[in-house]
Write the structure tokens for this entry.
Amino acid sequence: MTDRRSLLLAAAAAPLALHAQPAPERLPPVGLGSWITFNVGNDPAAREACAAVMRAFFEGGGRLIDSSPMYGSAQATIGHGLAALGAQARVWSADKVWISGGSRGPVQIEASRALWGVPRFDLLQVHNLLSWEEHLPTLFAMKAAGRLRHVGITTSEGRRHREIESVMAAHPIDFVQVTYNPLDREVEQRILPLARERGIGVIVNRPFREGALLRALARHPLPPWMAELGCDGWAQAVLKFIVSHPAVRCAIPATTRVDHVRQNLGAMRGPMPDAALRERFARHVAGL
Amino acid sequence: MSEWWTYRPSDFLMFSQRTWHRLFELLNAEWWPLQPLLLVLGAALLAMPPRAMRWGLAAAWLFVAWAFHARRLADIHTAAPWFAGAFVVQAVLMAAWRPAAIERTRPVLALMAVALAWPLLGLALGRPLAQAEVFGLAPDPTVAATLALLLAARAPAWAWALPLAWCAASGATLAVMGEPEAPLLPALGLAAAVMAFRSRLRSSRCPAPPGRPAA
């Protein structure tokens, strides 16, 4: 019992550390991804459903929405939702450039901006490092001209981590987006420490492995020592594990459901696990 | 794409199961009441003279290329323009094809029956009729009907390539989405191709009698 109390006391102190994170920017630590879920085409009913998800997201205190030109109609769906909600000033817009050849980047970026309907992006990332050598100068020039606030790069599922590290070490990027969850922890070795060292914010994709992780965990009870952090289920426990890492600024789970987005945002509240509890949680999940 | 070997089929799925089925619902609403006419046309193809049949088939592939791939799927799938192009190529190939005769064998009739009954498949799996996939409008039943006609007319190998490629692509997409009917079209494609190959083999061993076209 004493152990649990000390764990909880340590955990309760953790949010202070989280919110004391340095530049580039403080963000609500749970964002909204759009891969698959917002690619609904020109379907009016589905677009309204996505707008409802966005409304719940903003009402719950969320800000960062992430998309890419690779995500089909997701950018147009986000633009529709932002216009319907009048939320262009509320959103923290994170998009990507995803095209071979640097000369084609600006046209794609402008097309993306028009689809979102925002005056400028808060963050543009080179998607999966595609032609990053050519796109990064464009993005830094946009930032210098005040047409972009932050520059980043992305990867997912553990691909090209060495190259990610070299870009982080050699270029003044603001954000890096990687996959991280209790089962995919490779980034803890080098990328997350390097991000802290360099003051680079980390955005986490695939927190639930596109839902597969939660479907697997649903067969097991949530350990009481995570429930005591205020987690009402596995989704909040996994998100608390992710966003309580000192290098992580935001996790971006994607969903089509209003109840799920509210549940995800709930992970921002209450005490956070400390390093020992995070490790215990990851080991517990890996052992299931 | 670097590290291409690390990608799984599921990494290429850009949309959800729900969005996929809504696509057909919107397509059907757009073209209603064309669907019953298309089913009648599909049934009539087997009864038509061979040259009329190939025009009907070419028209079906062209219409699916435009109405489905280019106008619907392209909204949610970056590969849709390529699919549309492939369906146009198959339409051209069908138009250029010169079938001599049609053999209405039992396997051919069974294949065509499955293709035309495709709308019942979704119904049996608990989906509404509004999301039915219909010959001439949706790719899978159009390809299934094409397999029947290619088999019936002993089509040359080049006419089979794209339909069989679609069987594989569609099967993989549905499998990644977890759809129970995923193996159906690949199985039909495989069965039709094996039957066509055996028929060709038999023909090569026993030359056709005078007046009857060789395969």
Observations:
- The beta strands of chain A are 64-66, 92-97, 121-126, 148-154, 175-179, 201-205, 248-251.
- Chain A touches chain B at residues 36-37, 39-43, 45-46, 70-73, 157-160, 210, 256 (CB under 8 Å).
